[in-house]
Amino acid sequence: MIYLELLIGFLVVGLFSFGGAYGAIPLIRDVVLYYGWLDEEVIMDMIAVSESTPGPITVNLATYVGSTKGGIPGGIIATLAVVLPAFFLILLIMIVLKKVLENKYVRAVLGGLMPCIIGIIGATGVYMVLISSIYPAFEAERDIAAPILAAVLALIYFGSRKVLKHKVSPIMLIAIAACFGVAVYGI
pTM of this prediction? Predict the structure, then answer.
């Protein structure tokens, strides 16, 4: 019976949660409280744990609830139930989108959006560096190392195109940033 409840409960979450993980949290809370799987305090603790562990919050919560109530099979059922609706929806969208992407006007619009997306990501990075170094939040100390590290990473990225004649891979850039972070800030 618990397996059927996990399947139905997390299918509801997977089908009707919109707006990402934070939009799904109230629905997960309602489903978990309705079935009596966890109490309010444990739900709040598990939301905090799910936010701090790798992977989507919704999947982490479903796996935890499913495995605590139904063991490994319960964890698998809850996880699949919360993921499968989105999987099939994306599959359907991709089938339709494949035809739409062949349209030259749609390709032109997407090509025009690419610089905007790059600008938004770049602006977010600049904002984060400014907040940590010039206008620190929460009355923290100014962090002068952040803009220096950002400048060094930008120099590595753009300099590699000029010197090496190819781009540094994003994975390599993340590894370099991690090494610099450990060297500057410690562990």
Answer: 0.54
